[in-house]
């Protein structure tokens, strides 16, 4: 996975999910990219593991930036977003939170949501 999104290209999304390391890191990713999908996950979560390849495909095939937050390592950040279960998927467009879903969604559903916020 790519360690950060600072490649100097605001218009291109990373082709691999980004590991979010702090609130400031998430804020920087939101500010740098138009559409961001954040997956709040846990290593012990079965549905989270099933969702991982779907998110990798979205990162490489869509204009969205996909980011991941390990809720066990980033408990405060998860709490800030009201994460009560994993996986929780939070969508940002133009730096603002636009949707939040708890539970694994299909690749088609995720792609549809991303397309709603991209040109």
TrEMBL record:
Keywords: Disulfide bond, Electron transport, Redox-active center, Transport. GO terms for cellular component: cytoplasm. It comes from the Archaea. InterPro entries: Thioredoxin, Thioredoxin-like_sf, Thioredoxin_CS, Thioredoxin_domain. Pfam families: Thioredoxin. Residues 1-119 form the Thioredoxin domain. Gene3D superfamilies: Glutaredoxin. GO terms for molecular function: protein-disulfide reductase activity. This is Thioredoxin. The gene is trxA.
